[in-house]
Amino acid sequence: MKKLFGVLCAVGVSASILSFNHNEIADFEGTNAPDLVKSHVEWKGTKFDQAQNKDKWHNGKVELKDAKVKMKNNSPEAVSVTVDLSKMTNYDLPDAMQGRLVSHLQSADFFDISVFPDATFTSTKITKLTNDKFQFNMEGNIKVKGVSQAINVKGHIVNVDGKQMLESESFQLNGEEFGFIKPGGGYKNVDLRVQLYLD
C-alpha cells in the first residue's frame, strides 16, 4: 500500500492541538457534519489487458454513510469517514453496462458488501505541512473488508463555488492486502480521492 492518504479516500484530531495520541478518541462535539449529498470518494480501478498489452481502467464514485470533520482556524483537527459501498457508481461505461460492473464489484469476488457494507477511515494525527502542494498530512486507520491498516495521506482545504471542501490527494490501496483483489487476476491497486464538502 502506498502510505499516503487519502478518502477516498479521505481523512483526521483533538481540540486545542493538531494531533492526538493513537489511543485517544477524537472529540467531534459541536462539529457540523459535511454535506453527505455532495461529499464522496472517487475511485479508479486498473486491470492489465494481456490481449492488448496495456492497462485498462474504470472509474466512478462511492457515496458516504457518515462523515465528521472538526475544524480549527481553517484546518482539520479530526476526520472520520464511513463509505457506503452499496452506493457505488461508474462513470466511464455506457449506461447499459454500468450496473453490471458495479454489481460485480459489490459481489463476493471483490468487496462482498453483503458481509462488509462499509469502509471507514478515522484519523489519529494531523500535521501541518510547509513548502508542499498540500496543507496537511493525515495519519489514521483505514478499514476495508474487515482488514485495518495504518495509512498516511495528504490533504488541503479548497474553495468550490464559495464553499469549503476538504480534499485528499489521490492515494492507492493494495487490494490484495485488504482482500478485495485476488492474486493473479490482473487487477491492480485502486486509486482513491476523498472530497468532503464542509459547508
Structure description:
InterPro entries: Lipid/polyisoprenoid-bd_YceI (IPR007372), TTHA0802/YceI-like_sf (IPR036761). This is YceI family protein. It comes from Faecalibacter bovis. With 199 residues, the protein is mainly beta. The chain has one domain: Lipocalin (Beta Barrel). Helices cover 8% and strands 50% of the residues. It has two helices and nine strands, in the order E-E-E-H-E-E-E-E-E-H-E. Strands 1-2-3-4-5-6-7-9 form an eight-stranded antiparallel beta barrel. The radius of gyration is 17 Å and the shape is globular. The two termini are 32 Å apart. The N terminus is likely disordered.
Total domain units: 1
The CATH class = Mainly Beta
- What is the number of helical segments per DSSP (H or I, 4+ residues)? 2
Instruction: Please tell me what the overall shape is.
Output: globular
What would CATH call the architecture?
Beta Barrel
Instruction: Write out the strand line-up for the largest beta sheet, numbering strands in chain order.
Output: 1-2-3-4-5-6-7-9
Beta-strand share of residues: over 45%
Mean pLDDT, as a whole number?
85
